[in-house]
Task: inverse folding
């Protein structure tokens, strides 16, 4: 799986499709504010989808590590968490950039923005925790436990709290439902780009994570820890 | 009429400048994407050699 080729090619094809057809596909013009900027949907939103998927994979390996004590699982968990955080950071930056032109300021203190920032900060502490422990076994065990905690903190900060208040971001009060998955809110033509985009970006994230895993495993072998 | 003429002139400048030059943006994003994938693929290849 780490070295298989077909899904890497698939990722490339899907992203090339996203980055070409994403600019050409007809998008609905609802009002004079959104205009073509709704095309950001093919780039900004898949960052968060990709982040959720990668962090979930990281969680699975964290649990696996705690059950097995196998260092390889820790390596997997760490690599997927890192790449998930890269996606999350890109998501929050693109979100602020988009907000600057859509909401008037890069940071308007919107509940969705604040929630996303809190969620990311909680995850950043995962790396601080890892960096502060020198003993490999202890680092793996403590960070796996913390990983589980920070994954479940994503739910109140990203999925629940922003939806209980008024928000400029889709999904808040007044625009119910999941802004990404709710089919009614997205035109059929946009969906033909959006879902391939999610798969393409996620696969690219998986690919980069596997590179990190392979480097780490080589390092462990070199150090005689594996 | 003049407006119509101007649009026609603009449309005759080739595919890169049609539609508010969106094709130009599309091409640049595609070039970046291709470059990025080449880079990631080359790291992948190097790693495979190291693993052998």
Result:
């Amino acid at each position: 799986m780490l070295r298989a080729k077909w899904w890497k090619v698939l990722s490339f094809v899907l992203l090339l499709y996203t980055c070409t057809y994403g600019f050409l596909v007809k998008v609905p013009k609802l009002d004079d504010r959104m205009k073509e900027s709704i095309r950001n949907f093919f780039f900004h939103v898949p960052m968060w989808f990709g982040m959720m998927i990668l962090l979930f994979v990281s969680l699975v390996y964290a649990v696996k590590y705690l059950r097995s004590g196998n260092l390889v699982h820790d390596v997997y968990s760490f690599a997927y968490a890192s790449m998930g955080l890269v996606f999350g950071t890109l998501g929050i930056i693109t979100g602020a950039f988009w907000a600057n032109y859509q909401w008037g300021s890069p940071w308007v203190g919107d509940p969705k923005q604040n929630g996303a920032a809190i969620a990311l900060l909680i995850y950043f502490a995962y790396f601080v925790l890892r960096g502060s422990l020198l003993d490999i076994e202890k680092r793996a065990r403590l960070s796996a436990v913390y990983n589980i905690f920070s994954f479940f903190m994503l739910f109140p900060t990203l999925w629940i709290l922003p939806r209980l208040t008024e928000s400029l971001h889709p999904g808040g009060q007044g625009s119910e439902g999941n802004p990404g998955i709710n089919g009614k809110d997205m035109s059929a033509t946009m969906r033909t780009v959006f879902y391939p985009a999610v798969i393409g970006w996620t696969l690219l994230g998986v690919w980069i994570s596997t590179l990190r895993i392979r480097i780490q495993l080589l390092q462990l072998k070199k150090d005689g820890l594996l | 009429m003049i407006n119509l003429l101007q649009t026609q002139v603009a449309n005759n400048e080739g595919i890169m400048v049609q539609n508010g030059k969106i094709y130009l943006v599309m091409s640049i994003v595609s070039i970046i994407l291709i470059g990025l994938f080449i880079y990631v693929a080359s790291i992948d290849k190097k790693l495979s050699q190291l693993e052998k």
Remarks:
- Chain A touches chain B at residues 3, 8, 12, 15-16, 19-20, 23-24, 204, 207-208, 211, 214-215, 218 (CB under 8 Å).
- Chain A is about 70% helix and 0% strand.
- The helical segments of chain A are 6-24, 44-68, 71-102, 111-132, 136-164, 188-222.
- Chain A has one domain: 6-21+39-222.
